[in-house]
TrEMBL record:
GO terms for molecular function: branched-chain 2-oxo acid dehydrogenase activity. It comes from the Eukaryota. It comes from Rhizodiscina lignyota. Keywords: Oxidoreductase. This is 3-methyl-2-oxobutanoate dehydrogenase (2-methylpropanoyl-transferring). It catalyses: N(6)-[(R)-lipoyl]-L-lysyl-[protein] + 3-methyl-2-oxobutanoate + H(+) = N(6)-[(R)-S(8)-2-methylpropanoyldihydrolipoyl]-L-lysyl-[protein] + CO2. Pfam families: Transket_pyr, Transketolase_C. One of its GO terms (biological process) is generation of precursor metabolites and energy. Coiled coil: none annotated. The lineage of its organism: Eukaryota, Fungi, Dikarya, Ascomycota, Pezizomycotina. Its EC number is 1.2.4.4. Transmembrane segments: none annotated. SMART domains: Transket_pyr (SM00861). Its cofactor is thiamine diphosphate.
């Protein structure tokens, strides 16, 4: 039996729920309250699910002294200065240094010469010329295929796929060509100049990934787990500007494997921190203990790191516990020893990622922990991840990890 409210909403009004751009007809006040907003947001008076304050979060380095105290930085960077950069600016700085320091570096993709849709390559074409920074046709398969050939001939090819959602036409090139090249050659060669053979080391495929609140089906996906099934690829996702610069420089200039470099687009302008001006290289396949703790290990990467930090702060206050926060940084091949060392110490673990929960990075991490830490576990490994469904335009946030869900997972782990 329908309610008075449902009966008061006309069929044309219901259509507006699914077509928010169209003009809404006149409806009763009670019904119009339902139609005010057709996208997700934080609820009023929320305690946990509130907007991230990027100006205070401990995930970011808000002063030069904290940025330069990073033990992974070389001495030259630690003695230098810093600049306050957004994520997209730090990526631009890394690309600029790579192009300037090595003439074999080339940068290409859709609209890259114009600065890219997120402005990560602004002014690079003007500085380095159209032979090294150039636009391509709208063909992801062609972009990646060209990059593979260029890398095999000794260039350091940095390809941009405009959105991670569009990488799938290039999946065959990445899986069957780029990932297999070094294995097929039977060598650890670095480029065509090496007399022993060729490889695709130096190929980096950059792509913005993840949700922003209104990206819907084709601008919200985070497909990193698909690439973690492919030996021969490295899959990297930074959490911050400082991390992005160092990891990208390592991927371009030092990796002997092709790298899928995934950039959380929601952080491009939101995440701002002090970044060393000197070039530096951060290690691939090395997790980082962002915050030490003794009772629960929380493992994540990319944008969910900020939600994890907020959930940990609330849980430590409410439950009088100490949580360790681990950033995988490289999700394949990931740092098993450091993760298992942390979980063996705490006995409890929560894994958080934005991509789908089924067959996701968290599934592999949880299985590895079960095998390697079973006798030290005090509770089942908790997974907090995206739902096994497509990302809709309406209420996108409901499909992704949030502070409340992570907080609940920590509580379940300690109360088990």
């Amino acid at each position: 039996m329908s309610s008075p409210l449902s009966r008061s909403i006309s069929k044309s009004s219901l259509k507006c729920l699914f077509h928010p751009i169209r003009a809404r007809p006149s409806v009763p006040l009670a019904a119009s309250a339902l139609l005010v907003r057709s996208y997700s947001s934080h609820p009023p008076n929320a305690r946990l699910n509130i907007p991230t304050d990027y100006s205070t979060t401990p995930i970011l380095n808000h002063t030069s002294s904290t940025a330069l105290s990073n033990p992974e930085l070389p001495e030259s960077a630690r003695r230098g200065s810093t600049s306050r950069l957004t994520l997209h600016q730090s990526i631009n700085a890394a690309l600029s240094h790579a192009l300037r320091s090595n003439e074999s570096v080339i940068l290409f993709g859709e609209d890259v010469a114009f600065g890219g849709v997120f402005r990560c390559s602004m002014n690079l074409a003007n500085e380095f010329g159209s032979d090294r920074v150039f636009n391509t046709p709208l063909s992801e398969q062609g972009i990646v295929g060209f990059g593979i050939g260029a890398a095999a001939e000794g260039l350091k090819a940095v390809a941009e796929v405009q959105f991670a959602d569009y990488v799938f036409p290039a999946f065959d090139q990445l899986v069957n060509e780029a990932a297999k090249w070094r294995f097929r050659e039977g060598t650890n060669a670095w480029g065509a100049k090496d007399k022993e053979g060729r490889s695709c080391g130096g190929l980096v495929v950059r792509m913005p990934c993840g949700g922003v609140g209104h990206g819907a089906l084709y601008h919200s996906q985070s497909p990193e787990s698909l690439f973690t099934h492919v030996p021969g690829l490295r899959v990297v996702m930074p959490r911050s500007p400082l991390q992005a610069k160092g990891l990208l420089l390592t991927s371009i200039l030092q990796s002997n494997d092709p790298v899928i470099f995934m950039e959380p687009k929601a952080l491009y302008r939101a995440a701002v921190e002090q970044v060393p001006n000197e070039p530096y290289f951060l290690p691939l396949s090395a997790a980082e203990i962002v915050k030490p703790g003794s009772d629960v290990t929380v493992i994540s990467y990319g944008k969910p790191m900020y939600d994890c930090s907020a959930a940990i702060a609330a849980a430590e206050k409410d439950f009088d516990i100490s949580c360790e926060l681990v950033d995988l940084r490289t999700v394949y091949p990931w740092d098993r020893p450091r993760v298992m060392e942390s979980v063996n110490k705490t006995g409890r673990c929560v894994v958080v990622h934005e991509s789908m929960v089924n067959a996701g990075v968290g599934a592999e991490v949880a299985a590895t922990i079960q095998e390697g830490c079973f006798l030290r576990l005090e509770a089942p490994v908790q997974r907090v991840a995206g739902g096994s469904t497509h990302v809709g335009l309406v209420y996108e946030r409901m499909n992704m990890p949030d502070v409340a869900r992570i907080y609940d997972a920590i509580r379940k782990a300690i109360e088990y």
